[in-house]
Amino acid sequence: MSSNPTPNGNGNGNGVRIHHTRRLPDFLQSVNLKYVKLGYHYLITHLVTLTLIPLMAAIIIQASHMNPDDIHTLWLHLKYNLVSVLICSTILVSGSTVFFITRPKSIYLVDFSCFLPPPSLTVRFDQFMEHSKLTGDFDQSSLDFQRKILERSGLGEETYVPEAMHHIPPTPSMAAAREEAEQVMYGALDNLFANTKIKPKDIGILVVNCSLFNPTPSLSAMIVNKYKLRGNIRSFNLGGMGCSAGVIAIDLAKDLLQVHRNTYAVVVSTENITQNWYFGNKKSMLIPNCLFRVGGSAVLLSNKGSDRRRSKYRLVHVVRTHKGADEKAFRCVYQEQDDAGKTGVSLSKDLMAIAGGALKTNITTLGPLVLPISEQLLFFSTLIMKKLFNSKRKPYIPDFKLAFEHFCIHAGGRAVIDELEKNLQLMPEHVEASRMTLHRFGNTSSSSIWYELAYIEAKGRMRKKNRVWQIAFGSGFKCNSAVWQALRNVKPSPKSPWEDCIDRYPVEILA
Please, what is the Cα angle at 411 between 406 and 414, to 5 degrees? Predict the structure, then answer.
């Protein structure tokens, strides 16, 4: 049996290769036309805006060339055509009113914060293996398997596991899991509030996502209690939605901010390891132990126009793809008990193929929204030619480097980063943030895309109007994308998770 860490959902951004070498499907081989249509449908919903902009530009250009005699002539014409003037004015006012009422509000990312665990939680490879051996729960085959996964994982020697996992034997409990959740969430939120100077009472919307730890009261209630948030806050707790839940939480906050005016939304993304360590010998359930590490993020969003000047980014698009209607996709990441009654997450051998299908659907839908017209025409024309004349002709895969300056690919595993780099024809610098996040912090589930964005900021690479693509996978099976645009040259916020080590990165990761 061979293995290779790959991404998955369920809070587990990794996978296992069993019996066969499985890779993401080659996107050049097949593109489904219905998902192209879906992307163009999204584009058409903004058709009124797209047609009004050139019309207004033409009117302004024409008006700029008018002299006083032209204006006088126009006035005389309008003076003797009062009915026409009233009709045109009514249409103009009505159209403008509908446009301004129905257009979506801009959503701004004021700032975000990623939790940096204390040095006492650091776990080295030899320490990890020694503790695994001393628990007495793993046979020699499982220990050898975990050692191979660590060596091939792309993780470094400075990642973190929770306090309960440092004990011999480990002491997972509800109390310890609560302590981990509090440490991560409050650490990220304290830094966020300190950097933005926002008072907790000003928060109108709270969305928390954590897949595998859902206590009562909820994690969102814990935050409300800790920071004494106001009584009419709209709070939500998302569970079981995997590593892509961070984008889902952003999408939910976005929709709420479209309805509730002049307010702030906080999105907290994390995963809890303490009670979800697998102590059995089923190899497809052992990989999360090797890749998952402590981490979390807090993001402050605003729909206030006055916040534009101090915000870092504007949310441009969110595209979500769900493959749960397919039985194989639904069960490819499945939490269950093994034959010995020990709970873990079972990973299907079809995981990579299913992840690739979800990714292909997502980017095919996203393409018409973000790609230049030239790339869309090339893609669409070659697709039509393939359908009409030559079924074996490879479709043109658009160059997404023309749409985005930065890529934040979920750091779920080394294999998926490799495959996305290859299939999307990216350069090493485009996946650097993902690789270095995996090396420094491991797989932090839904928060990994925020550690990656923090890396880009810490390197001083984020310039005004740069576009960022965040993409993540989740159980179900889901693939979700968020697109942001920088509103200024973005500098790292105080107490960035990379503050004490960015000068050491990037590092070389041996194959």
Answer: 110
